[in-house]
């Protein structure tokens, strides 16, 4: 699922970076366009390669959620103008950042099959105890963390 997120959000960010100048509703500052192009390219590469896709989802989720929160704060405090970056927040960008950010955080940290969700559900993500046929303690029916009985 993380690979799919990286591929789809990466392609969406690449398109956003490429088309933002030509569509008046999506007009963005050159720095924002460059950030969308760079992060989109990295996400597509991570999604295509497979390794690092989970980290890519987590990192982009955090970055784009923070970008959305910065946009919301700028709208509330100064009418959408972000003086430090010299850009103006737009509702469509804030919404897109929220969608990409929250989806990345959910998929990266809580998606079914991820290590975080396995720990939360009480499942062990490591090797399974196979009892006498090669389990960790080698005793049939023994709990994985139970030491062997004395004298055996």
What is this structure, in a nutshell?
By secondary structure, the protein is mainly α. It has helices at 2-19, 30-49, 53-78, 91-110, 115-120, and strands at residues 81-82, 87-88.
Question: How would you describe this protein?
Answer:
By secondary structure, the chain is mainly alpha-helical. Helices cover 59% and strands 3% of the residues. The chain is built from five helices and two strands. The chain has helices spanning 2-19, 30-49, 53-78, 91-110, 115-120, and strands at residues 81-82, 87-88. A two-stranded antiparallel sheet has the order 1-2. Strand 1 and strand 2 form a beta hairpin. Helix 2 (30-49) runs antiparallel to helix 3 and helix 3 packs antiparallel against helix 4 (91-110). The longest helix has 26 residues, at 53-78. It is elongated and about 75 Å long. 24% of the residues are buried. Mean pLDDT is 75; it is low at 128-136.
Which structural traits does this protein have?
152 residues; mainly alpha; two-stranded antiparallel ribbon; 5 helices; 2 strands
Question: Would you list the SSEs in sequence order as H and E?
Answer: HHHEEHH
Proportion of residues in helical segments: 55-70%
Give me the secondary-structure category.
mainly alpha
Radius of gyration: 23 Å
Q: Which percent band covers the strand fraction?
A: under 5%
Low-confidence stretches: 128-136
Total strands: 2
Taking the alpha carbons of the first and last residues, their distance comes to: 46 Å
Strand order of the largest sheet: 1-2
Query: How many helices?
Result: 5
Q: What general form does the structure show?
A: elongated
Largest sheet: 2 strands, antiparallel
Estimate the mean pLDDT confidence.
75
The multimeric state of the shown protein is: single chain
């Amino acid at each position: 699922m993380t690979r799919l997120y990286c591929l789809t959000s990466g392609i969406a960010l690449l398109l956003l970076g490429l088309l933002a100048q030509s569509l008046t509703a999506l007009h963005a500052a050159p720095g924002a366009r460059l950030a969308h192009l760079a992060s989109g390219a990295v996400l597509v590469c991570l999604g295509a390669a497979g390794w690092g896709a989970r980290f890519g989802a987590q990192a982009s989720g955090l970055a784009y959620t923070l970008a959305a929160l910065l946009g919301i704060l700028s709208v509330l405090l100064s009418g959408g103008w972000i003086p430090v970056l010299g850009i103006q927040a737009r509702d469509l960008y804030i919404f897109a950042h929220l969608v990409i950010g929250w989806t990345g955080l959910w998929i990266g940290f809580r998606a079914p099959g991820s290590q975080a969700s396995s720990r939360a559900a009480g499942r062990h993500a490591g090797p399974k105890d196979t009892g006498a046929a090669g389990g960790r303690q080698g005793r049939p029916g023994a709990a994985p963390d139970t030491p062997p009985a004395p004298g055996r």
